[in-house]
Amino acid sequence: MSSVEEPISLSTRAPALELHEIQATILRPRPAPYFGTHMLFRVDDTRAGRAFLRRLIPHVDSAAGWWSATEPWLSVGITYAGLEALGVPQDSLQSFPDAFREGMVGRARQLGDDGVNDPKGWDKPFGTGQIHIGISAFSSSDEQRGRALAIVRRQFEGFSGVSVLTMQDFGAQPGDLNSLGYKDGIDQPAIEGSGVEPLPGQGRPIKAGEFILGYPGEVGVPLPMPQPNILGRNGTYVGLRKYQSRVGAFNRFLRANGSTEEERELVAAKLVGRWRSGAPLTMAPDQDNPELGADPQRNNDFDYAKDPRGRQVPFGAHIRRMNPRDTKMTRLTDVNIHRLIRRGTTFGPPYEKDELSEQDDTVARGSYFLFISAKAMATFEFLQQEWVNDGNFVGLDRERDPIIGRQEEGAIFTIPRAPVRRRIRGIETFNVLRGGEYFFMPSISALNWLTNPNA
Amino acid sequence: MATATLKSSAPNGPKHDQAVEEKIQQIRQLYADAPTLARTALERDLDALRSDLLDSPPPPVESAGRIGSRLGNVSELTIVVPLVPGGAKRLRAFLRLLNGNLKRGGDLVGTLHNMRFVFFDNDTRLLFATTYDGEWDAYIDDFVAKIPDYLDIIDSSWEGWPGIRSPGAKDYLAKHQITAEGWYVAYPDLTVAEIKRLSRIGKAVDELLDKVG
């Protein structure tokens, strides 16, 4: 019967993105400093859920003119359970990828979310199946955050059929640091056709279809899209992970492996591949360089050509795992198909170096980590399996990511040095997973479609 | 030799022991109408088998993800596909061009322990089997991005092959894969990358010892 079909024609021209349809958060970087709130909702009544969406739409920013952002801005994501609650027709529901339909809890095995990261230990409402709609407000000041919240409140207060499950404020710590005391969010993929000039070191722009549905991806064809087209096109997927930072354990680990402040800070830099300031070890191998760390034109402008043995940035360091760039890997790998747009949002009190107790491990503080991609589920599963909770891809056997890995008893971290490498033992899970969910982030037109999907 | 039924302790719990006994009874029943030599062989081996299964049962085979079995880091994949007319001829010629040795593609991929291509049923069907590291679909997208032509040269002989860039390619592979019922790996912890690393270390140690000794 059938022979091989004609080859699929590969697009070489970059299509212009329909920015007015794409939600702003996908392309718009986090402000610095940033203030915001994540809100999670349950839809108890289909009609109320649709009405709630309809009221929100005028306040959801598109990416058009993102460079002149009117702040604050809102983004809206909907879980699979949420699409069901909104009465999306069956054939449409079935057009979503399996991993999205199963949700993050259902994919715990593929994500390696076991042990301390097991969904059994998650904070409610995560893992209960009740999260239907997620709204995030981003702004550059606390005052503007308040305005964003007031806008959302007006849409649901005195409105039955939609319940608030959680409201979580987040915001940059002094110096723009995360809950383990590092500047983060520096390395982002450049996206073709987004109109954003790539920063030095970002690499060639990646095909838009990797991040936004309806455009050709890296292999030249668009990814399968939820149907109908109006629902899928210009949308994407967002993964949310809530991490609790164990600041005490982290500081105890640094103390155990460095007798002076300088030694401890070098170990801390080796774990990440950057100093606290964001300065990369490739460009500042011996000591921190805060000026370099603060300069977006320079702080990501490097590759590993001059560091093939990992003596500056260890192979197991967080940034080398999350973007190996030109690192020689043991497996046939295309780094450009495993990238994510990342929006880390820190919550809780700032990191302090002298917090050493076990109580300090339980202070509510950490990160709501958002990652965005047109194939977010598949990419994140790949990252978790191959680059986070394994080391085989760079010849490190079972070694795991020191920052976001789920560590086994007696875990090690290897720091290549001449003449012999240093192996640090007793690394612990410093960021414990306390919740997670997948959201579909529809286009503006798709949001409108969702308010009346049977029309 | 003491049989396990006489043991007082049950290291894997009474439930495990009971399950083993039930499975053994089931095997006995299934072999009841087998040839005498099969029944005799089974009875001769049964005591030792039972005692092994009760005392130190091997870790169960895990799933390699979407389809297939895995032990430790090492997974199996067996695909049986019908070939298009002329497909066997083309594919055989291609394999012979490589002297029947798939080193080029195998080395490039980095996760493959071995591969085999077997034509059967008068060249109308093909068995493709490989042993590889990790999860079923972790690197398929990388193959699509990095070596699409290599895969299409081979797989275009397969009936109904949609093309490696097609979103249906993974479904096609999964549909034609048959999960092995039994699976054995001598070193389940050793990936190809780890074997290469250990081999390098072994040589370096020998060189060092040669200098010292």
Average pLDDT of chain A, to the nearest integer? 92
Q: On the 0-100 scale, what is the average pLDDT of chain B?
A: 91
**CATH architectural category of the largest domain in chain B:** 2-Layer Sandwich
Relative strand content of chain B = 15-25%
- Report the radius of gyration of chain A as a whole number of Å: 22 Å
Categorize the overall geometry of chain A: globular
Silhouette of chain B: globular
The major pleated sheet of chain A works out as: 4 strands, antiparallel
Count up the domains of chain B. 2
Overall tally of domains of chain A: 2
Helices and strands in order, then pairings?
The complex is a heterodimer of chains A (455) and B (213).
Chain A: H1 24-27, E1 35-43, H2 46-56, E2 73-78, H3 80-85, H4 90-93, H5 98-106, H6 108-111, E3 133-139, H7 142-156, E4 162-171, H8 229-232, E5 236-245, H9 247-256, H10 261-272, H11 290-294, H12 318-322, E6 341-347, H13 359-362, E7 366-373, H14 376-388, E8 412-415, E9 422-425, E10 431-441, H15 444-450
Antiparallel strand pairs in A: 1-3, 1-4, 2-3, 5-7, 5-10, 6-7, 8-9
Chain B: H1 13-31, H2 36-55, E1 62-63, E2 69-71, E3 74-82, H3 87-97, H4 103-109, E4 112-120, E5 125-133, H5 140-146, H6 148-155, H7 169-176, H8 192-212
Features:
heterodimer, A: 455 residues, alpha+beta, 2 domains, 4-stranded antiparallel beta sheet, 10 strands, disordered N terminus, B: 213 residues, Alpha-Beta Plaits, 5-stranded antiparallel beta sheet, 8 helices, 5 strands, 47% helix, 15% strand, globular
